[in-house]
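Supplementary Methods S3. Input chains for the assembly prediction are listed below.
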Amino acid sequence: MNAVAQPSALQVRAQDFLARYEGLKDRLPGDAAVRTAAAAAFARTGLPGPREEAWRYTSLRPLAEIGFREPLGPLADCAALLAGLPAIEGPRLVFVDGRFRADLSAVPSHVTVRTGTPAFGTLARLDEKLVTLNTMLAEDGATIDVAEGIDAGTLLLISLGSGSHSHPVAFHPRHALHLSPGASMTLIEIAMGAGTYLHNPVTSITVDAAATLTHLRIQNESPDAFHLSTVYADVGARGTYDSFALTLGGRLARMEVHAHLHGEKAAAHLNAAQLLGGNQHADFTTVVAHDAPATASRQTVKNVLTGHARGVFQGKIEVARVAQKTDGYQMNQALLLSPDAEIDSKPQLEIYADDVKCSHGATVGDLDPDQLFYLRSRGVAQAEARSILVRAFLSEALDPIVHEEARAAMETAITAWWERQSV
Amino acid sequence: MLEIKGLTATVDGKEILKGIDLVVPQGEVHAIMGPNGSGKSTLSYVLSGREGYEVTGGSATYDGQDLLALAPEERAAAGLFLAFQYPVELPGVGNANFMRTALNAVRRARGEPELDAVQFLKRARAELRRLSMADDMLKRNVNVGFSGGEKKRNEVLQMAILRPKLAILDETDSGLDIDALKIVAEGVNALRGPDFTAVVITHYQRLLDHIVPDRVHVLADGRIIRSGGPELAHALEAGGYASMIAEAA
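Predicted structure tokens for the full assembly:
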């Protein structure tokens, strides 16, 4: 009865991360005070566990079973991974195992970029455990600034997990992106890799008045990888944060996006598609805070699940008293192509203003047998008919993507994913 | 030649087709008329291979090939086409892509070369003009937002593009105004010839004023109770189904 409780796997893993921090802290770049505070917080809170409401559907246990170390050693060769990158033209910032690689990058001309140190900025957020972990152990990151009124075009932010280490590695890049008033940019983020690793990036985004950031993400990590990313997007008056995230990779993945609409008529589009098979688990969690009048948010999240895959969507919309005329829309749709696949959908609306338009919905189902028969009656073989209907299901999310090369890259990744499934 | 012998079928365990015997020789157009619930749509679905329709007896062959043993797409490759009574909407699927995919699937199965986008569009536009359809019909999603008449015309457009050897038109006239009906009928008539065999299923005689059939069959309670020439449709229109069914009983 009075036996000492064994520490849980999550606690052991948290201790392990703390120990790595102790060993590394004198060598890590950036603001030491920020790190010290994060380490103290992490020592108290540890990793998120299943009793927390925000982590009810996503367990980090599989992650806790693996001992990660920091990626030490010489520059990893990643020719094979580089060859697998989609063909998208333009300047790029390439990080390998969380470290900036000038030799693989092409720095853009219209923006200011600083690397070599984590971009902590003013974002402390000790309430988010994974962000705290990132703050404690971040080694590198990109600080990107776009000046007033500049259209910065396209920038690629590429993360490669090299898989070239003798042990699983964890990396925690910390990026910050600032668009000055009236500026615009398309940021295309691609995460790929090989082997077992934890990629835990945190990106803080500031979209000033009348600025527009288009943020397209392709998460195509190694099948054994863990991808836990957090994005904070603060959007000013008439500014737009327009994002689409495609999740195909990783063994366990969570993308968390916090959008704060703090200026009048600010807008956020947090669209996503999760295509999962085998034993994959992926979670798309959003928190949209409407904190100014006439702000708008749109979320269309599509899930295609095969095998024993599990998809999670948690979408929270908070409308402050001041945020009258808010327009919030959220839709989560899932195609379950196998009886063993599972989707968990949790919408949450907290509305304190009285003149708002907020709606949410969710659909779950298999492919429509009438649609399948219609295609087959026209001569289209069953497998192709299924593929066509899956594409059609995703088209609502993909078609609005204006950047042709990025959309083509996503289509290609989806085709490759589909060909790997036996459905 | 389509040859149906003693065909029986159930839906949800209920017998709907109770022994259909029907021969449609090559190059002929036959009409099947019958009241609601007589089994007209069930016959069309059984012939095209829709799931949920269980054949419990009899046979259906086309040119000696056992239709019932084939998957729906294999029937299409063999030359069968069903014009749906209720065409299905495919949101997110462009009409042009849909038709090209279908055409190329059928051409592949027949060992014919596939058409590229340009070749396909040329052919599709020619058929569109013949059916008095607007070009933008190809750009829209399949049947999404189409009026009832547009959906039926889209079925006939698909038929014109796929050029089947055996077409089953399931109440293609329902929901059509007289102008649309004429266009649809012209679409079917344009395909008529020695290599085109068709079964036109309809509730009303008026379609048969425009697609004049070689033979008319009356289906009631899962059986064909009368067969005759085009004049049979007029007799039905005058006397109604009830008296004919009573007479046959």
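Chain B has one domain: 2-86+150-248. The interface with chain A takes residues 48-51, 71-73, 75-77, 81-82, 84, 87-88, 90-93, 98, 101-103, 105-106, 109, 158, 162 of chain B (CB under 8 Å).
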